[in-house]
Amino acid sequence: MSYPVAERPLWVPAGDRIAAANITDFARGAERRWGRALPDYPALHGWSVEQPAEFWTSIWDLGEVRGQMGPVVLENGELMPGARWFPEARLNFAENLLRSRDDSDALVFWGEDRVKNRLSHGDLYRQVAHFAAALLEMGVEPGDRVAAWMPNLPETIVVMLAATSVGAIFSSASPDFGVQGVLDRFGQIEPKVLVAVDGYYYNDKIVDCMERLAAITDGLPSVKRVVVVPYVHAHHDISHVHHARMLADFVKPFLGETEIPFARLPFDHPLYIMYSSGTTGVPKCIVHGAGGVLLQHIKEHRLHGDVKPGDKLFYFTTCGWMMWNWLVSGLASGATLLLYDGSPMIGDGAILFDYAQAEGMTHFGTSAKFIDGIAKAGLRPRATHDLSALRAMFSTGSPLVPEGFEYVYREIKADLCLSSISGGTDIVSCFVLGNPTLPVWPGEIQCKGLGMAVDVFDEAGHPVRGEKGELVCTRPFPVMPVGFWNDPDGAKYRAAYFGRFDNIWCHGDYSEITPHDGVVIYGRSDATLNPGGVRIGTAEIYRQVERLDEVVESLVIGQQWPPGAAADVRVVLFVKLREGLSLDDALIARIRDTIRASTTPRHVPARVVQVADIPRTKSGKIVELAVRAVVHGEPVKNVEALANPAALEHFRARPELQS
Predict the structure, then answer these.
(1) pLDDT above 90 as % of the chain
(2) 65: Cα separation from own chain's centroid
(3) pTM for the predicted model, two decimal places
(4) What confidence score (pLDDT) does residue 540 get?
(5) Would the pLDDT of 254 be above 50?
(6) Contacts (Cβ under 8 Å, ≥6 apart) of 535
(7) How far is it, in rounded angstroms, from Cα 132 to Cα 414?
(8) What SS3 class is residue 549?
(9) For a tag on the chain, would you pick the N or C end, based on fewer CB atoms within 10 A?
(10) b vs e for 60-95, b when ≥16 Cβ sit within 10 Å of the residue's Cβ?
């Protein structure tokens, strides 16, 4: 069943908005510079993938990148992996984010409703200079790792910029990760410096981190210095943490430093180490290069997000999710970053809209699950808050269903560009995303990213339209990972993305290209269902069942049935209901009827089971593969990747699944 096309878009940008968009100005400039005819987005996108040297040179110039570009844009452009971008370039990532030293706001921070502060560009530069000098004094060199076990605080950005300014590789994890989850990540990369917080606020409670910090430090023999950042405690005893210093003591000898000696390094010099979700094994360590991340984020912020100097850019994220890395690059486009840490549901779910109103937020980024949640809770922000400054809303983490699109335009704001975006940690950016000059259709991601040769292939590797298949990228792009950590011959890297189709990046998303040249994501390919050999995307079922008022959230898997080597697969749906409700035969019938009426009989679950909670990763993604493993009696190899690992017990040895 192909995606049902809506009769009309939910939003069409006005002519003056199109004229004022950065992407419009960029296209006109490209026409003049390169002698190309680029009258619309399909033409612009076609040029961006057919003429990569022209396009990425234009992005370098659009971002006024500080550094030397060199004469060559792309070598071995026919190879994936193997292509080399800007092989003679030299740049420093932090230098391109620290462009200003004036008194305007660089960072604004809210820690729930308990802590608020702001940092000017001048303050940010000075704090980075102090921390960078301290790193240099202790012998941190290009290629060394600096790890942060931190919330989304201004200090985390200071540490990242200081580390990358001297050429160190930065890696982060959220403090809600347990000891083993941190060691599974940082233990692989052997950091020289660990920066950690004393605790954090969540749902108006203090969560202390000092005991876990001691255990983490004991498990990281490579660490020469632990820097403790004060956040929730006034007094600190760090005597039990090896090599520890408080932040103020670490930087005190260097408070007179006013300049940063930025190390200009090759385009592919490692910038970040990021981690796969790790719910089916020890996380893979994905290495991203400085130049590719910088150019890709400049492109996405300025052209697809229409971020302009002085805009207020927000994304609800932790430091364990790639959207944090995406957010902080907004400094390179002149945006003020609005940071938030804690529960988004403080104040009955209104605190993020309080923040938007108070700071004149122009770009509001969140997860599809947050939008679903506030819709279920009946929030009507357009009636309770002044959102006049808001121009764009971003959604990612999971597919945003058409009803979520409709809720945003009905109850948040009618005139904004709602950009559902999709990519991931693998590319620390997007394959498909928004466009301020295109209509927004319900349930559809607006367009393929510029410079990204995105397509959908069938099982035989042929492009398809109006049919579901594998999301692929058929040509190299600058933000492909440099590689995986501890993968010297690149075998793990090639197997992860290039094992399915030769010389083609296969991303692992089950997708469809629509008649509008938009994209629909149906879920992860490895979580698709195959009852009777027919592939079904999990998002197709979630869309239908979560329309029911009784259902708060759901998770669906394919269970081998009957048990045995030659078993088929039956669809099993788990539902979390509103408090006080119980699943009965009548509700099961309504759930099945709702799914059947809008999909096919193949989508209808053989079993519907009530659970008290749905397990999810730290970034809010539900973990279908982990639940499938539990149901089949298989081990979940890294429960530390989960925000609520106890929820897995709700799925173990359920009698409803034995017949």
Answers:
(1) 83
(2) 24
(3) 0.91
(4) 86
(5) yes
(6) 468, 510, 528, 529
(7) 45
(8) coil
(9) C
(10) bebbebbbebeeebbeeeeebbebbbbeebbbbbbb
Average pLDDT value for residue range 233-251: 96
CA distances from 426 to 135, 167, 202, 275, 484 (A): 28, 21, 29, 8, 10
Contact present, 589 and 608 (Cβ < 8 Å): no
Q: What is the pLDDT of residues 391-400, one digit of tens each?
A: 999 999 888 9
Beta strands across the sheet bearing 90-91: 67-68, 90-91, 265-266
Give a three-class secondary structure readout of 371-416.
Answer: HHHHHHCCCCHHHHCCCCCCCEEEEECCCCCHHHHHHHHHHHCCCC
State residue 262's pLDDT score: 98
**Residue 1's pLDDT band (boundaries 50, 70, 90)?**
very low
CA distance 108 to 302: 20
CB 414 within 8 A of CB 437: no
d(CA 476, CA 74): 9
Q: Which helix (H) or strand (E) holds 354?
A: helix 351-359
Give the span between the Cα atoms of 524 and 587, in whole angstroms.
Answer: 28
Do you find a cis peptide bond into 635, omega within 30 degrees of 0? no
| Contact residues for 56 (Cβ-Cβ < 8 A; gap 6+) | 73, 74, 85, 86, 295, 451, 478
Q: Which residues lie across from 193 on neighbouring strands?
A: 146, 225
Dihedral of the CA atoms 191, 193, 194, 198 (nearest 10)?
170
